[in-house]
What does this fold into?
Amino acid sequence: MKYIVMECHCGYAVVLDNEGRFIKVANRQYEVGQRVSEVIEMQVPQDAAPKKKVNKWLYSLAALAACLVLIVTSAFQMEQITYASVYMTINPEIRIDVNKNDVVVGLEAVNADGDALIEGYDYKKKMLDLVMDELVDKAIDMGYLHEGGQVSLFLDAENDEWKVSHGEALATHLNEYLSEKLSVTIEITDKNQPDDTPANPGGSDYGESDYGEVESSTQTPADTESHESDYSENDDSQTDYKESETTDDGQTDYDEPDDTDDGQTDYGEPDDTEDSQTDYNEPDDTEDSQTDYDEPDDTDDGQSDYDEPDDTEDSQMNYDEPDDTDDGQSDYDEPNDTEDSQTDYDEPETTDDNQTDYEIYSDDEGSEDD
Amino acid sequence: MQSEHRIIKSVYAAKEDLQKADEFIRDFIPFIRAEASKCISRPCSEQDDEFSIAMIAFHEAILGYEHSRGTFLSYASMLIRSRIIDYQRKEIRHQGNVSLHAESGEDELPLMDKLADERDHFEESANREATKREIEELAKVMADFGVSFSDVADNSPKQERTLEACASAIRYAAENKQLLDEMLKTKKLPMAQLVLGSGVERKTLERHRNYILVMLLVQTNGYEIIRGHLRHVLEKKGGSRR
It folds into this structure.
């Protein structure tokens, strides 16, 4: 490349190259008009330098931001990971997914009623306890869960510890929560057996509602309790019947139809189960049983009956007459006292009942003797 | 501080005004030479390449200086140093080639060179005189248009494609002498005709207005030597046409 020097300055020269470019070059003692073959071009520093600095800054900032985003998203993802699931079955069956911190991350219906139950429910960022409470509330509102109903929980987690600890915690929590509103059985199943769980509540409801929470199968407690009640009544009845006058007490006791019902069911043990079944399944079978279980008052009575029906009466008696034990003794010793008390409670109508009572109690005695 | 402030002021003034830049550089020649001497670790004379490189580096420093780049003198000394180092590296790379070249011609070619040089010397000096006269003439005409060679150098196209586009416009003008006459008469660049005739985008030509102007002036009568130097530009037209 040949250059003609066109202009000379102190610091630089302007040259014209073959291709028609004018270039500023280092002035190496050039003279105007001189032809040179090699030049040192001037390189004016671009403004790029400071820009680059800013860019570098931006890059590091962007990298930092990217790291942050990664961390945050991964943390968020971790939050969203399902750690365990709780299957709650009322009749609507739903699955509640929670993460490690017991925050609900997913809610799914297992059956159609479950769909209806969770429709429009927002579970986001709520704790498991809260979601269960609210869902149970909703179930009550929607009529899925009534007095004496049952809620069964099935916990599914890889960690068995979690299952155990949370199973109890959730049950007690729900119990506490529901105790203010309804008496409902909370059942925790170990294995997911959707066929069994709905079958159980029908039987267990009635038995358990009276006696509190029973986690095991329902039939045995019902039996044992009936036995207990039997014996408690028997004691009274025995005392009653040992002294002819005490029969009045028996009368008073058995004035209330519940006792007789209980007695009947109690003493025909094989019949008992039948009765109970028939009671719940076919209301027409025995009128008494129907009234017992359909009308809440009856059940209340029933409870009181089973727990301490006679005792209460006795205690009432006792309170009427200050000496409790005396009464018991007096019953045996002095018929008159009991007569007084009997007379207090005597009601002419009860005599009819008495007869039935006697029959029952004679059976009772017989059974005891056996 | 105060003196630094004054320097910066004059640097900013020198950016705008070539005259002031020249003065400024002249004032700082001792500084420039000192910096260059530091770099080559020997006293630097005005004949050294390094000195001229230091000079142009200082000029670059004037043009490139900004407040954000710190004090001017340290910036300038840094730039001078890096330019000289650049140059020395380039020379080292060159030396391998040159030494080979020199070996073959150390004894013979230099004689030839000397002979050629001496033969050329008279021609060249005469040639240079003629060239110089032409250039001075051109500079005078350019001054009428308010343009200096430095302006043209700043305005000159650097990209190959842009250069080619400008060349096609110049060729079109060279073919149509009446355009050049018109330009000389009106002292105006017939931009519209150039755009129409050459098909080059107006924006491209506008951006290199000064450059086009000078090249068109060169095409007018009386600049045979320069035109000869630039015959590549005009030949390309012939080549492409044929």
Summary: Strands of chain A lie at 3-8, 12-17, 22-26, 35-36, 84-89, 93-98, 104-109, 150-157, 185-189. Chain A has a mean pLDDT of 63. DSSP finds 15 helices and nine strands in chain A. Chain A has three domains: 3-36, 84-217, 221-369.
